[in-house]
Request: fold
Amino acid sequence: MSTQVHALDVLLKEHPFFHGLAPEDLEILAGCAKNERFEKGQFLYRENQNADRLFIIRQGTVSLEIYSARRGAIVFQKVREGDVLGTSWIVPPYVSGCDARALETVRAVSLDGPCMRRKCDADPRLGYELLKRSVAVLVGRLEAAHFQLLDLYRNPLERPRHG
Amino acid sequence: MAEPAIAARGTVPPVSPMAIRPFVVCGVRRETRDTFTLELESAEGGPAPRFLPGQFNMLYAFGVGEIPISISGDPTRRGPLTHTVRTVGVVTRAMERLEPGGVLGVRGPYGEGWPVEDAAGADVVVVAGGIGLAPLRPVVLSVLAERERYGRVALLYGARSPKDILFRAELRRWRSAFHMDVEVTVDRGDRTWRGDVGVVTRLVPRAPFDPARTVAMICGPEIMMRFAAQELVRRGVARDAIWVSTERNMKCGVGLCGHCQHGPLFVCKDGPVFRYDRVETLLSKREI
Reply:
């Protein structure tokens, strides 16, 4: 095993998303991983493009945005160090649902989507583990979206935005 | 004899539970587009009554109506009585129109407050949503007045938008001047907002505190409190170390009329601050 793969192996092991995975699984996943750096303003991925990478943010802030011609980029969430991005890698048709833009220098570990899918297909037990973990991230983001839609802090004097 | 320091939780009795005393507005501060802070001095002279963080007063706009409003002032200093009010109806609209020299009726302080004294030695996590920061401001001020008595202190605050953030200048001061972690997030950002966007519950997993020795205090809309409490429990905070402030239709303020009865509890007398494990099931009940 190369030093670089070993270092990535350790980085993955330390992240909560991979907690509890067997060392051999981490080693397999590290084979799909690489370190990446994005400068302020660069996109980690764009809406409606191939969701070909899962990102573990190691440093920096990323805004998740949807672009509107009338309102420009609408930021609906910001994610930071420790967060996971790009969970569409495991959901067909593997297309990103929003833009992810670096708000400052961002360092991340990216895991190549097609590479991981091949490994998951070859080892369904590992695939199921990663599916459960990706779904947990998606559910967390869905719950957050529910809260935002509920507009909990709205003044009762105002008309609701929805419904 | 010197006056005692802040008394233990819930031990400051009102002079006369139902007596309305006139207070004169000595200061008005606009906080956000729909929220303002009133500073009140007794029209009869003498200092404002002492209070505990989390207690409330019944404020009476003469000829309009009476409502419960939490005290948002500094419990460690004798000064005017401070209430931060959001305009949501007829009575609060009448209060919004008050100018210095205007008069309000005041009864109180009432209720059981936050466990600020009991939290000494522990890490303190304050989770606020929207106007819920106002009843927690006395907690923060009390903790900061004796900062060395507490472990790590974190304030996690969620607002609707940057325009709706309460006590902006103070948040900035708390963040920079004390050993305190202040995280602010908004549900909807705008082009100028550089801070977090997302719901306040997302701040819990990364806040710096030791769950095994933490006291958490939550105030905001009930759904937000429910999910914030669940997130704290998931992080490892014990249910009996989490406190929430409930809101019901309080009328008399002293547990006589029953308007605020919530199962076996009277929110005005037994609360408004409750230990989470005592009200967890009540918070999620559709009907009682």
Residues 32 and 98 of chain A are 23 Å apart (CA to CA). The beta strands of chain A are 33-38, 43-45, 53-59, 62-68, 72-79, 84-85, 99-102, 106-112. Chain A touches chain B through 22 residues (CB under 8 Å). The helical segments of chain A are 3-14, 23-30, 113-122, 124-150.
